[in-house]
């Protein structure tokens, strides 16, 4: 059980690291860990007038693959459903621009992929 707790703590630490990284680059983070019955969105914020849903992925090293490769089609569908619900809750219409970003952390290296994937249904 101790390993699961430490993984969760590490995940929260890396999400905080990603949020700080994004804020230094002009994003205004408005929400963290938004949960719905469809899944979770790690970070939500605004960047250049656009609502941004951010998935944060971390790998200690690339032995098991890159962090960004863990953002599978199944994960993308969950994020999109969750984002639709968030937009519904906050009365954001389809005319409001939004995008999906991925922050990939490998060791101490951070890579930000803006507009990493399109919305899927």
Task: Give a description of the structure.
With 121 residues, the chain is of the alpha+beta class. The protein contains 2 helices and 5 strands. A 5-stranded mixed sheet has the order 1-2-3-4-5. The longest helix has 23 residues, at 2-24. The N and C termini lie far apart (36 Å).
What is this entry, summarized?
The chain is α+β, with helices and mostly antiparallel strands. Helices cover 33% and strands 38% of the residues. The protein has one domain (2-117): Trna Endonuclease, Chain: A, domain 1, CATH 3.40.1350.10.
Q: Could you report the average pLDDT, rounded to the nearest whole number?
A: 93
Q: What is the C-alpha radius of gyration, as a whole number of Å?
A: 14 Å
**What is the strand content?**
35-45%
Quaternary state reads: single chain
- If classified by CATH, what would the architecture be? 3-Layer(aba) Sandwich
The helix-strand sequence is: HEEEHEE
Please give the number of β-strands.
5
Task: Supply the number of structural domains.
Answer: 1
Shape: globular
The class by helix and strand makeup works out as alpha+beta
Tally of separate helices: 2
Query: Could you please say which CATH topology applies here?
Result: Trna Endonuclease, Chain: A, domain 1
Question: Largest beta sheet: what is the strand line-up?
Answer: 1-2-3-4-5
Low-confidence stretches: none
Taking the alpha carbons of the first and last residues, their distance comes to 36 Å
């Amino acid at each position: 059980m101790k390993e699961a707790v430490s993984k969760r703590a590490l995940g929260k630490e890396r999400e905080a690291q990603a949020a700080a990284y994004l804020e230094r680059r002009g994003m205004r983070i408005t929400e963290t860990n938004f949960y719905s019955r469809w899944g979770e969105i790690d970070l939500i914020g605004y960047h250049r007038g656009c609502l941004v849903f951010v998935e944060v992925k971390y790998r200690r090293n690339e032995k098991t693959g890159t962090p960004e490769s863990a953002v599978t089609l199944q994960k993308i569908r969950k994020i999109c459903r969750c984002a639709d619900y968030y937009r519904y809750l906050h009365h954001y219409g389809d005319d409001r621009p939004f995008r999906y970003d991925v922050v990939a952390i490998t060791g101490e290296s951070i890579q930000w992929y803006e507009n990493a994937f399109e919305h899927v249904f």
